[in-house]
Amino acid sequence: MTRPHGERPEDIDVRRANSARMYDYFLGGSANFEIDREAVQKIVEAMPDVEYSIRASRGFLGRAVRYLVEQGIEQFLDLGSRVPIVGSVHEIADTLASEVRVVYVDTDPVSVAHGKQLLGDVKQADIIGADFRDVRSVIEGAETTGLLDIARSTGLLMVSVLNFVQDDEEAVAIMDRYRAALAPGSYVALSHATAAGLPQETSDRIDEVYANVNPPSRWRSPKQIEALLDGLELVPPGLVTASEWRPDAPPDLPPDRIAYRAAVGRIIR
Ligand SMILES: C[S@@+](CC[C@H](N)C(=O)[O-])C[C@H]1O[C@@H](n2cnc3c(N)ncnc32)[C@H](O)[C@@H]1O
After folding, report:
1. How many A from CA of 160 to the centre of ligand 1?
2. Hey, whose CA ends up nearest to atom 11 of ligand 1?
């Protein structure tokens, strides 16, 4: 990859595969390097139908945004957004002819620099570089864009991101902090990687790849994912595989082969 987007070379670690750049490659983007593509290749060898899981999680994101816009949500905070390419929140909102505003958040400098350039002419969306675990700086940064008013109901998107938080207690604490920071009537849409349903050998091989990826991803069991949703009022159908959450069409793979669970919950106080 060349660096046409202004990111500083010292910010970019090309010695280790990076999960944002790997995901970008999975989704057909150009913000990735050879080392990222090699890591993806190893994952595909371990799990040839992994693409369906990624599509299922992305599909969930699209349906969740549509659902939340239907509930009257007009502003979104998309944590770990990666480069907001095709199918991103502001594009989905556009198709709904809605006045939705979006702040994308990522720590990956390539995603943020590339995203800034892509969103240059887009008035209703911006991207900030921040660590989503630092709730206060995410919210301050998001408000600084002028697009988000934290006193109003927000759609918080945590799609395939909490799997980058290794510690269970920290993951629960992050959810608690966002729940406390957002206005009642806000919603959280969450998808999380799970190995339930995968052969042990497959998940072990993927773990080996992620041992050398920055940041590494981890699986959580459906029970552990349920614990992250504590205190939210889940909308039907609750926590299910990502392809089973209010599908528009019959899923293309049996649900137990999809390595993501997903849910949408409302913040009540
Ligand atoms: C698997 S991608 C998911 C991208 C997007 N949410 C989607 O579903 O298409 C995970 C993203 O989370 C970002 N990420 C991981 N840890 C993060 C952190 N602590 N703070 C902000 N972003 C983070 C990565 O850089 C990457 O872009």
Report:
1. 7
2. 80
Residue 64 Cβ < 6 Å to ligand 1: no
CA gap 55, 61 in Å, rounded: 10
Which numeric CATH code is attached to 50-206+216-267? 3.40.50.150
Degrees to nearest 5, angle at CA 1 with 34 and 16: 40
Which residue's CA is the nearest one to ligand 1's atom 16? 164
- Dump pLDDT digits (tens) for 52-84: 999 999 999 999 999 999 999 999 999 999 888
Tell whether the model's pLDDT for residue 1 goes beyond 90.
Answer: no
Residue 30 has pLDDT above 70, yes or no: yes
Angle between helices 34-46 and 200-210 (to 10 degrees): 170
What is the DSSP annotation of 198-209? Answer: S-HHHHHHHHHH
pTM score: 0.94
Provide the pLDDT for residue 223.
97
Contact assessment for residue 130 and residue 161, using Cβ atoms and an 8 Å cutoff: no
Q: Is the CB of 60 under 6 A from ligand 1?
A: no
Residue 177 exposed, middle or buried by CB count within 10 Å (0-12, 13-18, 19+): middle
Helix, strand or coil, per DSSP, at residue 170: helix
For 213, the token pair is 């990826």
Per-residue pLDDT band for 87 (boundaries 50, 70, 90) equals: confident
Q: Is the CB of 61 under 6 A from ligand 1?
A: yes
